[in-house]
Amino acid sequence: MRILLILAAAFLASCEQTPAPPRDATKEPWYRDSVEQLTAINREAESAFAGGKPDRAAALIEKGQPLVARLLDVPNPTLEAAVAATGLDDLYGRMLL
Question: What's the per-residue H, E or C state across the chain?
């Protein structure tokens, strides 16, 4: 009787549904919007730095950091997101020199 109970439990456990595959975050609307926001921040920070306003550029770089983290935290970030993130890092590096 116990063996039958164990076999029934094993059978029922093997019949559970497989979990749904995770959604591709890069296809979500928030992802595209965040990439566009970060690109705009990059342009504005670049312009501020070129215009001799390093404090404004630094503030914009800080503003973009949460977007960078969110964009690159997904399993397979897009090339656009990576380019936007490196653009922000590049400007920060140039500001340090």
Answer: CHHHHHHHHHHHHHCCCCCCCCCCHHHCHHHHHHHHHHHHHHHHHHHHHHCCCHHHHHHHHHHHHHHHHHHHCCCCCCHHHHHHHHHHHHHHHHHHC
Please give the chain's pLDDT, 97 residues, in tens.
677 667 666 666 666 666 677 789 999 999 999 999 999 999 999 999 999 999 999 999 999 999 999 999 999 999 999 999 999 999 999 999 8
Token pair for residue 41? 């921040």
Closest by CA position to 82, among listed 71, 93, 90: 71
The pTM of this model reads 0.76
